[in-house]
Amino acid sequence: xxxxxxxxxxxxxxxxxxxxxxxxxxxxxxxxxxxxxxxxxxxxxxxxxxxxxxxxxxxxxxxxxxxxxxxxxxxxxxxxxxxxxxxxxxxxxxxxxxxxxxxxxxxxxxxxxxxxxxxxxxxxxxxxxxxxxxxxxxxxxxxxxxxxxxxxxxxxxxxxxxxxxxxxxxxxxxxxxxxxxxxxxxxxxxxxxxxxxxxxxxxxxxxxxxxxxxxxxxxxxxxxxxxxxxxxxxxxxxxxxxxxxxxxxxxxxxxxxxxxxxxxxxxxx
Length: 269
Known about the structure:
Number of helices: 6
Number of domains: 2
Strand order of the largest sheet: 5-8-11-7-6
Shape: elongated
Number of strands: 11
Strand content: 15-25%
Helix content: 40-55%
Order of helices and strands: HHHEHHEEEEEEEEEEH
Radius of gyration: 21 Å
Oligomer: single chain
């Protein structure tokens, strides 16, 4: 039996993704979940929860979360390729991520891997499986990096939304922040992504093995992950490409929110 060309493997993968998208859209329509505008398709914020809800009737919750992440991965990859703008009030954090250099390595080595599989393995089914796994890995590496560029930290009306691509997200109300400061802390070893210390009720969202901003919170928050929510934390550190401006913006908004809270019970004289 002849080997399946690499382009056909990619096409079959795309067809599978399209079928999954169709199922999700059908479920979304059946559940009467609507977007208020076309920009809401970018899923800022809460779109993953809507997709998880739609898939919840078809799959167990852990699989629903993973399927939602799979769909979002393709969405953000398309936005990144098309250079779609991010919403106002966004602050990037991806520039020192090791995923950036990894993209170049993956793009250069994957064609070589596929060629070696074709030349060295005599078993067709094994070649197909390994080729599909290689292509799938490439899509995830590019898609995860794309989600980091599109899902940035975002300063909103009532709080700040903190993200690590499509893997992690937390919303911190301004009223819950007691202290915020620029504090560059390097992690021990090569540490990337979210790390939670349950005993100290703290979390770190490292990028390039470093965080740049530390929050001290009056009220605990939980962080959404693909496996669910983390234990509540009262101290949170994150990475940012421009931590000084982000902290300045947050302090200004915190002051405005505090002034609004103090002034709301007062009636005009």
